[in-house]
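Supplementary Methods, section 5.1.

A reviewer requested that the exact input to the structure prediction be made available. We therefore reproduce it here, unchanged from the version used in the analyses.
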Amino acid sequence: MLWMCPYISPDCTMFKELRGSDLLMKGENGAPVLRHWWNGYSAVVDYTKEKGVAWFRQQMNRLTADYGVDGFKLDAGEPILPGAPDTTQPVAWSRPLRLLEDCEAYASLGVGYPLVELRMCWKLGGQALIQRQRDKTHTWDAGGLGGLIPNAIVQGLLGYAFNCPDMIGGGMDGDINSPDFRFDSELFVRYAQCAALFPVMQFSMAPWRVLRGEDLTWCLNAVRLRSELGPELLALARQAAADGLPILRSLEFEYPGCGYELVQDQFLLGSNLLIAPVVVQGQTSRRVVFPEGRWQGDDGSVVIGPTELEVEAPLSRLPWYRSIQ
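The structure derived from this sequence is encoded token-by-token as follows.
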């Protein structure tokens, strides 16, 4: 998959061609709007115009046909709101837009391609799009690891079944590339374990570059578990494509009315797999809520629900359970 943005550097030949074809977002003075982002200042392809959409898709189609690109990560695409501080001037749209329609228009560029990941979507639930969570920090709190499961549950309920956490370890610009950055190997392992059985997982840093010894083994074990359960994940993806049901689900979704709506640190993968990662620093055990039924753990234990148990969860273990008859 190729990482793409709708931005055009103002000092390149392509900028001149697009400006001459009237395919760039313009301000009220008729000049192209420049948008500030982490990599500098750029003009923006006007993907709210049919001609702009056609040009952008032409580039994507050329990349798939000529270079064998399998899919795209369409980054950016945030709605440009009135008075937004990241533009030098307001956008003078070529036609009246609904609020957030520009965000919807950008995300729609990915519809129809076999693999497309987006950070920003609007009103596109149910489409075959991978919806990534917003950038996460290298922290344990809700802005980092602690926010992965609650965010994923909401994404699924909004119709984005193929949801994706941010990169393992966090991918917030200004965080992991800061001179003050301090790497936490425990956090990285737990992050990998939490993300391993999401519909999608992706790394920010190669594990073998940042981990050593047992930490590396435990991280790679999480990846091996995902590979082992790959056929079940694929079956759930096909089911979601057919009926829109979330792949990653809250307990309350599968067992409504049982008081599980506030359980936000564990999840179900489909109906039959219960995943209970550790998301709190220093924890070597955790409380797991078991719905009705018989649940067989990765450690061989069998639990009869409904019940709650404190289970052992050293850094080497991602607790997960399978519903059995």
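DSSP finds nine helices and 14 strands in the chain. These observations are discussed further in the main text.
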